[in-house]
Write a structure and sequence with these properties.
single chain, 600 residues, alpha+beta, Immunoglobulin-like, Zincin-like, Neutral Protease, domain 2, 4 domains, eight-stranded mixed sheet, six-stranded antiparallel sheet, disordered C terminus
């Protein structure tokens, strides 16, 4: 008999679910229940046990109490006293509408099993069943195998599969599409979204079809997109991948205008491509999982950064992102990367390994000692693609590498050892890519984007001023990131080797005057126009409550914008690479390209 989880919703308004874990065929004097401290795809120890309360144990059937005690932060031990079956009851608080949370309201119930359903230690590889008791007008959705409908009962082959598939209940907008003949459910939870259902139906189907074409086939029989629409905010957009579904949170206003809608498509493509990359093509340590501690790998850049690269490529292949817009967005990502000093400090392998203490825990010095492995991994994958296309005259590409990974590892459920990615890339392309990996994956060699873009007949063009602002004065640059602190300009971080760092500015400093003239956060950009690059500037700051003065020599700010434009003339190979990569022929620069800010 399988371990059974019963999850009830007695009073949704208090955001507490009632959980009953029935453990049959007990042997031994004790049984331990362990709640994960993290969930796959979100590489941070989150300690979900803090949401659990009132844990009780009893003999299954008779209800006779059994002793239970907590022996570490997420482990409860029950004294079985020789009984054949144990039932554990508790409540879990859920009011976190996120891709890795539990959210219970009078409108819906989002259940990520790894956040609130513990495993029975030693029985993680056994089949499990979960029963969800909800209000009668709600429908329960999951990609777990359905056993019964009233109440909704589902089966997982083991605990890893249980954790891998979210359960969602409520009354969403439901759309079904069948790209490549495979049913894909699109569920939209949350009122007030500015979406057009027909457009989402059409564009998600095109995204899926492009991803399947890119990889050559699909392992799926069905799939679900869980979308939750939230109030706009900095944490409103996120996604978490699963083998046969994805859980995505979005601002409810994200479907208009066009630029916001492309972000919706981008996160959709990213999470969907994960069904290949990371859920099946995966480092060996990422499954089966140790849910109690960090699972270290140096390959997260390829799992996440490369997925970002392919997400944009999928939208390009689906004709949902025109080539000029693709290059425009790529230029923005390059600018973001090249203005982050930490890109020179940690290699991609180090960034991957340190994810648990770095990416999800940024602080004031993070920009100077780190960069997101999503951003750097995306751009290094771009360069790898162009390197392969150039050296093989467009016969092979980075897609060849991931198709080989899919065939040799993903399809056969074989985990990738830490040193196996490079040999696969070499075999798939017929090249020796060791020098590339040594420089840009294991090392911190600065990426020469003009060189790699040149392989496709393109180059970067920096603009000190965005189009339309060319005639504005060039303001001096302090080399600090500022935030609005009650109207005052407060230093959030100081750029390595920038004017502020050289002058001794520190995070937390409040800039109150420039050369004796009071300044506020909103006024500072205009005020700095009086101090062009190279100007001596006397700053008055509050530092830890005390007034002090700092002498700064202003510098020149990084370009406001980058364009990707054609080189003067492209070789035949570069033109072939350009067309193979972007799907459009290479064309020489238009005379108005610099003024309009458009790409080829």
């Amino acid at each position: 008999m399988p371990v059974e989880y019963h999850v009830g919703v007695d009073n949704p308004k208090n955001h507490r679910a009632q959980v009953r874990v029935q453990i049959p065929e007990v042997s031994g004097p004790t049984v331990d229940l362990v709640l994960p401290s993290w969930v796959p795809g979100s590489y941070l120890i989150r300690d979900f046990a803090r949401n659990v309360r009132d844990v009780r144990a009893e003999v299954t059937g008779s209800g006779e109490p059994l002793p239970v005690r907590k022996v570490d932060k997420a482990r409860w031990r029950v004294e079985t006293r020789g009984v054949p079956g144990v039932t554990v009851r508790y409540e879990v608080y859920g009011h976190q509408l996120s891709d890795d949370g539990v959210d219970l309201t009078d409108e819906h119930f989002l259940l990520n099993p790894g956040v609130c359903l513990p495993y029975v230690d030693g029985r993680e590889r056994e089949p499990l069943e979960v029963v969800v008791h909800t209000p009668p007008h709600w429908k329960v959705y999951t990609e777990l195998a359905e056993v019964a409908r009233s109440p909704a009962r589902f089966r997982a082959k083991d605990y890893d599969e249980l954790v891998d598939e979210p359960i969602d209940a409520g009354t969403p907008v439901e759309i079904t599409v069948r790209p490549a003949g495979i049913p894909h459910r699109i569920l939209l939870f949350g009122a007030g979204g500015n979406f057009e259902a027909h457009r989402i139906e059409e564009d998600v189907a095109r995204t899926v079809e492009a991803a399947i074409r890119l990889m050559g086939d699909s392992p799926l029989q069905h799939y679900t997109f869980f979308y939750h629409l939230l109030d706009p905010g900095p944490r409103a957009m996120g996604g978490l991948e699963h083998k046969a579904s994805t859980l995505i949170t979005l601002p409810r206003t994200t479907f208009r205008p066009e630029e916001a809608y492309r972000r919706f498509l981008s996160v959709t493509a990213h999470e969907y491509f994960h069904l290949y990359n990371v859920k099946r093509i995966r480092p060996r340590v990422l499954g089966p999982f140790d849910y109690t501690a960090e699972n270290y790998t140096r390959l997260l850049w390829a799992m996440e950064g490369s997925t970002d690269y392919f997400a944009h490529l999928i939208l390009l292949r689906a004709s949902l992102l025109p080539a000029p817009k693709y290059l425009e967005e790529l230029a923005r990502r390059i600018l973001r990367y090249t203005t982050t000093p930490g890109r020179k400090v940690r290699s991609l392998e180090e960034l991957s390994f340190d994810a648990w203490i770095d990416l999800y825990r940024p602080y004031e010095e993070s920009p100077n000692q780190s960069v997101s492995y999503y951003v750097k991994g995306d751009l290094v994958t771009l360069c790898l693609d162009l390197e392969i296309r150039h050296r093989t005259e467009n016969r092979e590409s980075v897609t060849s590498v991931f198709r080989a990974l899919w065939t040799e590892y993903g399809k056969v459920d074989r985990g990738l050892e830490e040193d196996e990615l490079l040999p696969v890339a070499n075999r798939a392309t017929g090249l020796d890519l060791a020098p590339f990996f040594a420089r840009y994956v294991a090392g911190t060699t600065e990426v020469d984007f003009d060189r790699f873009l040149g392989y496709a007949g393109l180059r970067l063009k920096p603009l000190d001023r965005a189009p339309g602002r060319e005639d504005e004065p060039v303001a001096g640059w302090l080399g600090v990131e500022l935030e609005d602190s009650g109207g005052r300009a407060r230093v959030r971080s100081v750029v390595e080797d920038g004017p502020g760092r050289r002058a001794g500015l520190s995070p937390g400093d409040e800039l109150v005057a420039l050369d004796g003239q009071r300044t506020l956060y909103a006024d500072l950009p205009k005020a700095l126009e009086r101090f062009p690059p190279g100007s001596a500037l006397d700053l008055t700051v509050f530092r830890r409550g005390l007034l002090t003065r700092v002498a700064v020599e202003t510098g020149k700010a990084p370009p406001e914008r980058l364009l990707i434009v054609p080189v003067e003339d492209a070789s035949a190979v570069a033109r072939r690479v350009h067309e193979g990569w972007l799907g459009v022929p290479w064309e020489p620069a238009r005379k108005d390209a610099g003024r309009s800010g458009s790409s080829p």
